[in-house]
Amino acid sequence: MKAMSFVIATAGLLSLAPAHAAKPANPVSVHVLNMQDGLPAPGVEVILERMDTPGKWDKLADMHTNAQGRINALYPAGQPLQQGTYRVIFETGDWYHAHGKQSFFPQIPVVFAIDGSLPHYHVPLLLSPYGYSVYRGN
């Protein structure tokens, strides 16, 4: 019984730790939600690029969203996070085509700055065939 009490007490203490105390495993993530049906958008191709020089982008990653519409680790593993201008490109036209639907936006490029002030940058996309919304998440 003492061992059980210790486990419960330890679990309780761990739950009191601040959410920001745990360092994320990867500094860049995305999430795509389909506003038409309110569900995640699995299978959306997402490309991560970093601006090398003005007008020149270096591709860092190319992945697809999982069943929850997420990519939790988009930044290349083992590479230190660099400050700079980044772009995620959501290949929405391909995704809609695969679902037998049309979209006004074949791609949604989102350009954002990583200044190094945060350990994690999250880019959520709310998607519909003729509009979208993107914001800085957490």
UniProtKB/TrEMBL annotation:
Belongs to the transthyretin family. 5-hydroxyisourate hydrolase subfamily. Catalyzes the hydrolysis of 5-hydroxyisourate (HIU) to 2-oxo-4-hydroxy-4-carboxy-5-ureidoimidazoline (OHCU). This is 5-hydroxyisourate hydrolase. It holds the Pfam family Transthyretin. PROSITE patterns: TRANSTHYRETIN_1, TRANSTHYRETIN_2. Substrate binds at residues 31, 70, 135. SUPFAM superfamilies: Transthyretin (synonym: prealbumin). It catalyses: 5-hydroxyisourate + H2O = 5-hydroxy-2-oxo-4-ureido-2,5-dihydro-1H-imidazole-5-carboxylate + H(+). One of its GO terms (molecular function) is hydroxyisourate hydrolase activity. The lineage of its organism: Bacteria, Pseudomonadati, Pseudomonadota, Gammaproteobacteria, Lysobacterales.
